[in-house]
Design goal:
Elements: H1 4-25, E1 29-34, E2 42-47, H2 51-70, H3 81-90, H4 92-95, H5 100-121, E3 128-132, E4 139-142, H6 144-149, E5 151-153, E6 160-162, H7 163-176, E7 180-181, H8 183-190, H9 199-207, E8 215-217, E9 220-224, H10 225-245
Antiparallel strand pairs: 1-2, 3-4, 5-6, 7-9, 8-9
Length: 246
């Protein structure tokens, strides 16, 4: 059972880990898109370079906002997740007035977020993050042999998951945010997750009409990450079927 001291420690750790984690997640590539107003009007869409860090930051921000609402705090619009957590810590004693079950659930979530953040900032050597367990939200990491095998067991709940399914869940989240990039950018983004698609392959898919650009970046085509992932999984399936027939 998580003690009040442990909860305070975890909230403090989450606050202190926020900056390096945010830097890892939001070291972004800004992709210029010509707007309808003319050549001087540009908008940019950031693409996270580390999907795992981006997801932990996003989940931590949601958790911080939940705590702020429960404590009836009144943050300003310019406050980020670290600022919100600092405000929660300043009002830490009020958390103990919450229902015991609610407090236990919050303490468990805080501890999980800290564990996930530390795994990203100090990962075990020779492993890649492939996603989170859909059952218990534990971060799942694999070595190259496990990635080749296609399945990964969760060290917490014991369930085994197909790596492709974990990747699909992650791609769906990014698709909802409209993440896109040039072939080189998408290739770099996907590689740490064990998704190896060469930039030249993505470029050829575009030339063959398998995927279609949604914008231009300095004359280079920009593709949606979901379209790229869908093409990768679809063509991999075709190739497996072809090998079985021969």
């Amino acid at each position: 059972m998580t003690t009040p001291t442990q909860l305070t420690h975890d909230l403090t750790s989450l606050r202190d880990l926020w900056r390096p984690l945010d830097q890892l997640a939001t070291k972004t590539i800004h992709i210029g898109e010509r707007a309808d107003g003319g050549p001087a009007c540009m908008s940019s869409a950031p693409m996270p370079l580390n999907l795992g860090a981006w997801q932990v930051v996003d989940d931590s921000a949601s958790f911080a906002r939940l705590l702020v609402r429960l404590l009836h705090l009144h943050p300003t619009r310019d406050m980020d997740g670290r600022d919100l957590l600092a405000g929660v810590l300043a009002n830490r004693a009020h958390l103990d007035m919450l229902d015991a079950e609610v407090l236990a659930a919050l303490a468990g979530e805080a501890h999980d977020l800290v564990e996930r953040a530390r795994l990203l900032l100090y990962p075990p050597e020779g492993t890649r993050m492939v996603g989170w367990c859909p059952q218990c939200v534990r971060e799942l990491r694999c070595d190259e042999r496990e990635i080749a095998g296609g399945y990964v067991p969760c060290p917490r709940c014991g369930r085994a998951w197909r790596i492709k399914d974990l990747h699909t869940l992650a791609m769906q989240r990014l698709h909802a945010r409209g993440v896109k990039g040039t072939p080189a950018q998408l290739s770099r983004l996907l590689k740490p997750w064990g998704i190896d698609i060469k930039a030249d392959t993505i470029k050829k898919w575009g030339q063959r009409g398998i995927i279609h650009p949604v914008a231009q970046d300095a004359g280079r085509p920009v593709y949606l990450i979901w379209d790229t992932w869908a093409a990768h999984t679809r063509l991999a399936g075709y190739e497996r079927a072809r090998r079985r027939r021969t």
